[in-house]
Amino acid sequence: MFKITSEPLSLDEAYAAVHRDDCGAVCLFIGVVRDHHDGKKVASISYSAFAEMAEKEFARLAAEAKARWKIGELYLAHRTGKLAIGDPSVVIAASAPHRAESFEACRYAIEELKKQAPIWKEEFYEAGGKSWVSS
Predict the structure, then answer these.
(1) Single pTM value for the model
(2) Which of 103, 23, 21, 109 is nearest to 65 (CA)?
């Protein structure tokens, strides 16, 4: 349910991980690499992570979400390595009996992941150069 991987992320895997017969809603968030940042054209991005610690943080976030909302399951996956424009970098799925809880849990998970997880992003620009940026 929680992973850091250098492999492409699977939306089918995310859905399968959270789908439950007692849940009528599944919210899916997909973060993708965009082609610009701060007025610069981005060519690609490279993510690195302290995988073991990040997966523990994902589990903690899931436990917090389950304590706050009535949800079924929560799936969090983040990709590492070099990603091209349009590649999914993060996938979060949340199931719940009703849509409101699934949306809330999904939003909470991405916002907290960005603040807490030990994942770093380096952008490479079309005009040359690169920089580490906050997610």
Answers:
(1) 0.95
(2) 109
